[in-house]
Amino acid sequence: MDCLSDALNRIRFKSYIHCNSEFTAPWGLRMPGFQGHAAFLVMLRGGCVVSFEDSKDTYSLAAGEVMLLPRGSGCIIQDNANSTVFDFMDVKPGPAPKGEIWHYGGGGALTSILMGCFEFDMRVKNPLVESLPGVMYLKAEQLQSEPWLDTTMRFLASETANNRPGSDILVGRLTDMLFIQIVRAFMTQHKDCAGSTGWLKGLADPEIGAALRLIHEKPSAPWTVATLAKEVGMSRTTFAVKFANLMTSTPMDYLTSWRMQEAVSLMEQGEESVSAIASAVGYTSEAAFAKAFKREIGAAPGAFRRNVLTRV
Description:
Layout: H1 3-10, E1 13-24, E2 28-31, E3 37-45, E4 47-52, E5 55-62, E6 66-69, E7 75-78, E8 86-87, H2 88-91, E9 102-105, E10 110-120, H3 127-131, E11 136-138, H4 149-160, H5 167-189, H6 199-204, H7 206-217, H8 225-231, H9 236-247, H10 251-268, H11 274-280, H12 286-297, H13 301-311
Parallel strand pairs: 1-9, 2-8
Antiparallel strand pairs: 1-10, 2-7, 3-6, 3-10, 4-5, 4-7, 6-11
Helix pairs in contact: 4-5, 8-9
């Protein structure tokens, strides 16, 4: 499994559709932000202006474009920058009934937006989620690298506008696909990931990306800084410095973090004992594994595993 698929497979999130909406000018809404949530806007028709109260950045979105806010930021969306803004929670306190489109505005030019969010499980750090920039804006022409993304967006809009049997499960699957396609399209358009930090930037680098693949392919291997450096054709010192600069962590810290991701995955799969999990992720000492797990996850492995099995 490639690194991106591996990291995506470890992301634990729930997806929600707030509303399939039709706005008529003039209109303006202040959308709240929540920690651990990534809001998304899918532009179906017309256009809007998106701005942020803590930034001077402004974006003009058109039909066929999409925006994802991975850092839990709130935003302001308007038909134009001069329109009066109202709090979203005041004008729409609850979800629209299934299969209904929410209508709002002054009766002028029409804009259709599908609005929703992804809620991440914040108990377990994921290197991909942590490396995503605050704003991921993909223009219509940039979506060509993901030929099915536009189809997914249209299909999702259609399903949320109709209360047909099985629509709940289908909408859930489609929003999962939407997240993956947005991330992949962003990576394609920003090959050096200059707007991101950490994992994405490291993955885009030939040597550091190769080291990440080694760790992901064999997390239980007895890796050291020296052995990883040798595998990617670098000196130990040069490799360690470059890894830390790009990844904002040391190679050994990243190895430990990814091993704990693997351990959590094994717990979710029902692995029988902590000692077996420790061995599977490269620890010969259960005590050393337990110490690393608690430092990384914030809970003892036994207690965390029991909680996982209870939720399952």
